[in-house]
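User: Can you write out an input/output pair for a complex, sequences first and structure second?

Assistant: Here is one pair. Inputs:
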Amino acid sequence: MSAILPPSERLWWKQPIDKVEWAWIAIAFVWGMVMFAMMIYWHIYGKQNLSNEAYRTTPEMFAAKAEKFVAENTIRTEKGLNGEDIPVVKVPAGGAGYLIARLWAWYPILELEEGQTYRIHLSSLDYNHGFSLQPVNINIQVIPGYEHVVKMTPTKKGTYAIVCNEYCGIGHHSMLGRIYVK
Amino acid sequence: MATTYRTCPVSGLQFEDQAEKLMRWNAVAGVLALLAGGITALLVILTRWPAIKLLPADQFYLILTAHGIDMLILWIIFFEMAVLYFASSTLLRCRLAAPKVAWAAFWLMVVGSIMTNVAIFQGESSVMFTSYVPMQAAPHFYLGIILFAVGALIGCGIFFATLVIAKREKTYSGSIPLVTFGALTAAIIATFTILAGAGILLPTFLWSVGIIKEIDAQLYRMVWWGLGHSSQQINVSAHVAIWYLIAAVVFGAKPLSEKVSRFAFLLYILFLQLASAHHLLSDPGMSAEWKVLNTSYFMYFAVMASMIHGFTVPGAIEAAQRRKGYTNGLFEWLRKAPWGNPVFSGMFISLVSFGFLGGISGVVLGTEQINMLMHNTFYVPGHFHTTVVTGTTLAFMAVTYLLVPVLFKREMILPKLCQIQPYLFGISMSILGLVMMGAGTLGVSRRHWDMAFSGAPFQYEWPGAAYLMMGLTGIFGLIAVIGGGLWILLVVGSLLFGKKLDGGKVSDKPTPLPANTQAASAVSHGHDHVPVPGTVVLALLLFVCFVLYYFVNWKYLSEVWLLS
């Protein structure tokens, strides 16, 4: 009679299923298929899909590439609130930019143009970090040893913050970066 | 080994001596872990409440690590061990397999719990519940979790062996009860999960003592989440089993269809293992195809299973109530339910909150592209506080109101407070989950000490609404801690000071189910079909909310920067 006793019908698997239950199972099944199809649909027609382009790297290799990029494309430096000089690097329109995540900074400041598409290379030199672009609210995991190439196209001018949203130790809360979109 | 059997005069349940003691000890260990988890919860809330910001950063991360381990692993799994022993030995009226080994498993879990907590509070292991490499904790942090997991794995083995004994000694006839089937699901998932955990934590332990040089950070995340997420699916199976249990005990409810409910549990076993992917959707290392297939639990079959339980559990209650004559309108069966009985109210709030908040938010969060809007934001803990807390923990709390008289032979003290507790805890925790998700939708990070970014080279000001949400998180979090603390007080108080109840007849042989029980007499009920229109309306309401919220998030996604 109840769920804490063996089924009263020994051949419970031969009992018919009620129509209403069938209907609900059908709704759940169809809805699952819709949600499954939606992800595939978005890969074909949607404009926000996370890139799958990633390469193995090492902190040394990635840092060297990023430093070369900074050296070639820096347009000015800015003073941070703690008095440090931070290069502002203009990413060539349609070109590649590098962003280093490390304890506890995003380096350098990137300058982008609205409507241009960029290949932004992301990697960490130490622990896991989280690229959280605000107030747009795009969140991407940044993992040491992996160079993730994310194609992004800013849609609005402004000053954006990169919050680190993967816990990375005692200075985690001070790990804030910046992107300008002109 | 000689043992005795006690038949509880209130419930008619039969407890084998060793199994009963193990259930009690595991439950008590769980409550102690919940106490530690609750105190740390309070400190976490008071620190994330922007107006208070109680702890300094280092202590905050230490306490947050302890909160995760004590709640998500220790409290839940200790309690689940008690559930497994109950669903096997008690429901099948059979002796427990190898009680000495079961005790060894229990003490292994205790030693592991203490070891990991010591490591955390020594301060060198503030690596969070997830302990992502290459951030390193002290070796005994990992070793403690490994010992605990080995103990839990042995406990699952005892459960399986007890099922075999019951079958061989013919203590029941036909198939195992649905609740035992649900527990079996949980134990099978637990076995997979713990093996995945061993697969990553053993090498990580060796790495922490210097034997292994390096562990790939992406590989760690993938295998670790085979432990981290799948272990939450143990909870889902366990608390769904408890929903059925409570529906059966409080209402005498019979599953609408044994076939459908068991099939839904089977879908859990087949597909819940893929959940590791939910945490890797915004990672670099996996292909889109892998993400899509895995995050959907292979085309949402496990979600379908949860939707089925979400229908059949209230449906079973409605059918039972209508049989008793509560047939007016759509909802008389629900209005006339025993809302003053904390066993029922806790279970029903758990069902609703898990379905509407935890379930829907989980599927949306686990959608490949939408995940980018929420990954690692406060939305994530918001989601799992409405699954593992209002879902699992509240269901466990509710069933405890049943178990204290039956298992511990004590009457609950302060019945008025017992009545209030599930509402206080369930509602405040549900609102807490909602405002956390609200803050996450606005971008606020999880595991973050300072919304004002003190010491950062730049300034960033969160929207005012985000501060409002975090303030509300503080207020409702505080109420939820009071609600949880009240439960601990009521339970511990009842165990110490509750009126002693008659334990019932003790015999040295198990008594099989008498032939004239409801089980035997219910045959004629089998085809007596009762329509459940109220449940249909509730299920459709859930479905409409689900569809709307799902597509609203695609709309949000379409408004952010273009990514490809």
